[in-house]
Amino acid sequence: MELETSNGEEEGKQVVTRTIYLNRLNEKINLNEMRKALFAVFSQFGEILDVVMRKRLKLRGQAFIAFRHQESATNSLRTMYGFPLFGMRMCIQYAKTDADAVTKMKGTFVPRPVTEKPRENPVPKKKVTATHKTPHLASAPGNPIASHVDASTSLMSSHHILFVTNLPDSSSSTMLSMLFSQCVECCFVEVQQQMSLLHKS
C-alpha cells in the first residue's frame, strides 16, 4: 500500500483524511517495536485501524496511522505534533489519501495496480586472470612463483600487500626480498606457513 502525504499547508487548505502521516521517527528502533509504541501512544485519541510502516530505505522513519473516526485523526495531529518519541520529535500531517483499512471500512476500496519493475539482466561475471605478470618473472623456467593466482587476489592490485602462495619450503624472506625488489619497492617480507606477505612502500 502506497500512501501520499499532504503538502504541509494550513489545515483549511489540506485534504482532511482519517489517516495521518508521521515522519522524523527514530530509524534505529526495530520496526515492530516502533509500530507497538505508535499504537500505544495514539490509541488514546480513538480506535486505530492500522499502523503502516515499511522497511524500504526511502520510507524509513515514516509511518501512517489510520483511525476509524476523523476527529481522532485531527485531535492526534494537533496534540502530538512535535512529541518526542525515542528521542526524536515527530512531524505529523494528514495523508493525502486514506489508508486501505479506512477505504475498506467505508466501502470505497479500489485495489491499486501492481507494477513490477523489470529485472535487469545481471552482467555475466568474467573470469579474472593474472594479466600483469612481469615478463622477467613469468618467462623464467622453473620459477618458484605461484602458478595459480586467485581471482580475489588479482582484484586487490591497488593494495600495499602482495600475497604469494605455493612457494617451495626452502623459500626465505631474503630470497623473496631480492626477487621482488626488481619489480616493486619492498619494505619487508614476512613468511607465514607457506604464505609470503610483501609490503610495498
What does this protein structure show overall?
The chain is an alpha+beta fold and 201 residues long. It folds into two domains: 11-106, RRM (RNA recognition motif) domain (Alpha-Beta Plaits), CATH 3.30.70.330; 135-200, Alpha-Beta Plaits. It starts with 18 loop residues before the first strand and ends with a strand. The chain has a four-stranded antiparallel β-sheet, with helices on one face. The protein has helices at residues 31-42, 70-80, 100-106, 135-139, 151-154, 173-180; strands at 19-23, 48-52, 63-67, 84-85, 88-89, 91-94, 161-165, 186-192, 195-200.
Straight-line N-to-C gap: 56 Å
Regarding CATH, which class of the largest domain? Alpha Beta
Order of helices and strands: EHEEHEEEHHHEHEE
Which range does the strand content fall in?
A: 15-25%
For the sheet with most strands, the description reads: 4 strands, antiparallel
Shape: elongated
What Rg is obtained from the alpha carbons, in whole angstroms? 32 Å
Which bin fits the share of residues in helices?
A: 10-25%
The domain tally reads 2
The number of E-state strands comes to 9
> What CATH architecture of the largest domain do you see?
2-Layer Sandwich
* CATH homologous superfamily annotation of the largest domain: RRM (RNA recognition motif) domain
Rounded average pLDDT? 72
Instruction: Give the spatial strand order of the biggest sheet.
Output: 2-3-1-6
* SSE class: alpha+beta
How many helix segments? 6
Look up the CATH topology of the largest domain: Alpha-Beta Plaits
Identify low-pLDDT runs: 6-11, 145-149, 151-157
InterPro entries: Nucleotide-bd_a/b_plait_sf, RBD_domain_sf, RRM_dom, RRT5_SRSF_SR
Biased composition (Basic and acidic residues): 114-123
Protein name: RRM domain-containing protein
Region (Disordered): 112-143
